[in-house]
Write a structure and sequence with these properties.
The chain is mainly alpha-helical. It is about 80% helix and about 0% strand. A hairpin with a 2-residue loop joins strand 1 and strand 2. Helix 3 crosses helix 13, helix 4 crosses helix 12 and helix 8 packs across helix 10.
Amino acid sequence: MKPLSIWSVEKLKREKLFILSLFLGLFLVVFVAITLGNLFYKQAEDFSRLIDAATDPVVLKAIAISITMALFSTLIAFFFGVPLAYFLARKDFPGKSIIESIVDVPMVIPHIVAGIALYGVFMRSGVIGAPFSKIGVAFTDAFPGIVIAMLFVSLPFLVDAAREGFKEVDPRLENVARSLGASHWRTFLRITFPLASSSIFSGAILCWARAISEFAAVMIVAPFPRSASILIGDRFTSYGLSGLPGIAGARPISVLLISICLVIFVMLRMLEKRK
C-alpha cells in the first residue's frame, strides 16, 4: 500500500494546478448556472405562460427572424472575414494594427452607439442607404437592417478566431505544398483552411451567438420586423415578466429563446468535436 500512497501523493501534487483551475473556474460556471437556473425555475412555476409563448405565432416568428438573420450575418462575416483573417495572419505591413483595431472596435463601443452610427449610414438619406433606396432596397425597418446590425457587432468574433487559427498553421507546410507544384489557392483549400477550420468554426458559432443576442443596434436600425430580442423588450415594458393570460411576457419568451438556442449551440459544439 505504501508505493500506492506515494504515487497518489505525487499525482496529487502534479494535479494541483488543475484542481486550482477547476476551483476558480467553477465560480463563473456557478454564476451562469444560478442566473439561468433561477430564470427557468421561476418559469416552471408558471408553465402555462411558457406554453402560451411556444404557441404564439408572433413569438415564433420573432425567434425565427432572429435565428435566420443571425445566420445570414454569420455567412457574410465568413465570406468576407475569413480572407481578411488569412491576410492579417500571414502578412506584416504598415498600418496592420490599425486594421486589426478597426475590426475589434465593435466589441468595445456601446451597442447603442453602434446602432446610431449604422442608422446614420444606412437610413434612406444615408451614404449607403440613399443609393440602395433608389433601387428599392431599404435597411431601416427591414430585414437587411437587422442583418447589418447583427453583422457589425458580431464580425470581430469570427475574424479574430480565424486569424488565430491561421497563425497556428505552420507556414512551412504551405511552402512544401507550393514546392510540390500546388498553386497558392489550392494550398489554401487543401492545407491551410482545413488545419484552421476548427478555430474558424468556433468563431462562426460565437459570431452567430453574438448576432442572435443583439438588441440595442437592432432596436435603432430595424425595430420592425421584430426580432426576438426586440419582442422581449416590448413585452417587458408592456406586460412585465410574466405577461397576461394568453399573452406571454418577457420571461417565458426568454426561456423559450434560450432553450432553442441552447439546443442549437450544443448540436454545433458536438458537430465541432466530432469533426
